[in-house]
Amino acid sequence: MASSSSALGLILLLSLPFFIKAATTAPPSLQHRFTSIFSFGDSYTDTGNLLLTNHTSRLGRLPYGETNFHRPTGRASNGRLIIDFIAEALGIPLLPPYLGQSKEFNKGVNFAVAGATALDTLIGYGAVTLFVPGVFPSGCSTAYLGLYISNNKGEYDSSGCLNRFNDFSKYHNNLLQKELQRLQVLHPHVTIIYGDYYNAAIGLYQPPNNLGFSKGGLRACCGGGGPYNYNTSALCGIQAFTVCEDPSSYISWDGVHLTEAAYKWIANYLLQHSSVFINSRSH
Ligand SMILES: *[C@@H]1O[C@H](CO)[C@@H](O)[C@H](O)[C@H]1NC(C)=O
Ligand SMILES: *[C@@H]1O[C@H](CO)[C@@H](O)[C@H](O)[C@H]1NC(C)=O
Fold it and tell me: Which residues does UniProt assign to the signal peptide (predicted)?
């Protein structure tokens, strides 16, 4: 890991952590502002580590990876992830999994399976820009909707999401933002940015058209039946699942993870709404 370098850049911690190494000079466009990404996170940002540690994982089977890559890469989606679209926007190659020991190592690497690492540690290593995502609106998660089906309409919002889980996500994100503000005061020389995944994603679920996700926001493209096509006995990639013809018309890929099309939309929202990217453009 390039921890000896003086300026490691942007980090996503908790659910989707990565960080991007800042360029030593300040060139004009977003394309040259950051030179590498280092990522700390889970399956929402894992570009292949889990699969390298467990070759029997369903992430190693089609239809995972059927879009864009045309083969399973270990990503938990039909195609690219948010982090891939951010890398593309920054002009950085897609992140190789760190367990893969790729030649592209110096362009950044994905430590997703390593889990959340303390922000302080990363700052200690020289990170200068940290991008820390909140959580998605979990009340709109297909898996939760399938597991906690209710006859009481009052439990759902106008998008069909479960209010109590969305409330919990908002609560989590509020605490996270308070903690980030505290850390920002403690570390004034580091830029700590909150990645608003909740508001990036919530717009996708709003009727009537779900932003072109015509099959609706809540039903999974790939799954084994049931009202939301999420069946824990027949998960995507395992046994009796089916996969939709056009994943780009769905938000939910496998009930837990989103489609490439949804991740692309969210990445664009983050690139347009996060000060670190906006300010980078105007340099
Ligand atoms: C590897 O993946 C398979 C399939 O998902 C799972 O059943 C198994 O428990 C995993 N093994 C480990 C060591 O995590
Ligand atoms: C869930 O999957 C199991 C195993 O394939 C199947 O027997 C069951 O009918 C499925 N449930 C629904 C609601 O489709």
Answer: 1-22
Instruction: Please list every protein residue whose CB sits less than 6 Å from any atom of ligand 1.
Output: 54, 56-58
Comparing 18 with 157, which gets the higher pLDDT?
157
Cα–Cα distance, 131 to 9 (Å, whole number): 9
pLDDT at 24: 38
Active site residues: 43, 254, 257
Is the pLDDT score of 219 beyond 90? yes
pLDDT in tens, 119-178: 677 677 676 777 788 889 999 999 999 999 999 999 999 999 999 999 999 998 998 888
Expressed in angstroms and rounded, the spacing between residue 221 Cα and the centre of ligand 2 is 16
What average pLDDT does the segment 20-35 reach? 51
Quote the ligand 1 centre to 135 CA distance (angstroms): 25
Tokens of 115: 């889990």
Give dist(CA 48, CA 43) in Å, integer. 9
Q: What is the pLDDT of residue 262?
A: 96
Atom of ligand 2 nearest to the CA of 239: 5
Minimal CA–CA distance to 202: which of 149, 152, 273?
A: 273
For residue 146 and ligand 2, the question of a CB distance below 6 A is answered with: no
Ligand 1 atom with least separation from CA of 58: 5
For 235-259, what is each residue's pLDDT tens digit? 999 989 999 999 999 999 999 999 9
Q: Which ligand 1 atom sits closest to the C-alpha of 54? A: 1
Residue of the CA atom closest to atom 2 of ligand 1: 57
B/e letters for 217-227, b = 16+ CB within 10 Å, e = fewer, are bbbbbbbbebe
Distance of CA 210 to the CA centre of its chain: 19
User: Tokens 């780009």 label which residue?
Assistant: 248
Tokens of 5: 């370098």
